[in-house]
């Protein structure tokens, strides 16, 4: 559990717990949210997230759905037990309707696909009551979403092209061409 240094203009009521097992994403997002005035505490797992929530109940939280040691829904449930007024945003690289419904039932105010922009997360956290935040000004293109998904599966398959192609039901050569290109905008 780490606390990201925040600017001097941070409101102590803007405590935020960020739970994600992707170290790079967690640290970048923590810095970006700290610049937006949040006092950010990070955790890499369900267990660390629940411990952090109990030791310092957050007003806001951003939580990944799939974590190495379990499900982010458990963290949301713990946060809601500790602070029923907490505003929680669920992030996931595996978006589908069933998990979105489960996240909202658990108490999340919004559900976003990774990689999510810090401005979009901030807007979701600051939306008042049950109002929905405005749609993003610059949403990811369909090509970018596809590229992100393919690369995520590639990493989960330990960078094995043949296994990734099998899981994506894609020809191996096609996958190699996609992986060789730079990310689309």
UniProtKB/TrEMBL annotation:
SMART domains: REC (SM00448). This is Two-component system response regulator. GO terms for biological process: regulation of DNA-templated transcription. Keywords: DNA-binding, Phosphoprotein. Pfam families: Response_reg. The keyword Plastid does not apply. GO terms for molecular function: phosphorelay response regulator activity; transcription cis-regulatory region binding. GO terms for cellular component: cytosol; protein-DNA complex.
């Amino acid at each position: 559990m780490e606390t990201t240094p925040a600017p001097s203009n941070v409101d102590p009521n803007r405590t935020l717990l960020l739970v994600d097992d992707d170290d790079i994403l967690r640290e970048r997002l923590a810095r970006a949210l700290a610049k937006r005035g949040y006092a950010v505490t990070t955790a890499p797992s369900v267990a660390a997230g629940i411990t952090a929530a109990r030791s310092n109940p957050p007003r806001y939280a951003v939580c990944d759905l799939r974590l190495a040691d379990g499900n982010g829904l458990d963290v949301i449930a713990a946060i809601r037990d500790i602070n029923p007024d907490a505003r929680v945003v669920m992030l996931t690289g595996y978006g589908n309707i069933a998990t979105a419904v489960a996240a909202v039932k658990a108490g999340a105010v919004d559900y976003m696909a990774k990689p999510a922009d810090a401005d979009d997360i901030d807007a979701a956290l600051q939306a008042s009551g049950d109002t929905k935040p405005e749609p993003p000004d610059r949403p990811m293109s369909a090509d970018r979403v596809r590229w992100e998904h393919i690369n995520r599966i590639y990493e989960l398959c330990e960078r094995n092209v043949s296994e990734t192609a099998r899981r994506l039901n894609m020809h191996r050569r096609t996958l190699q061409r996609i992986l060789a290109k730079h990310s689309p905008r």
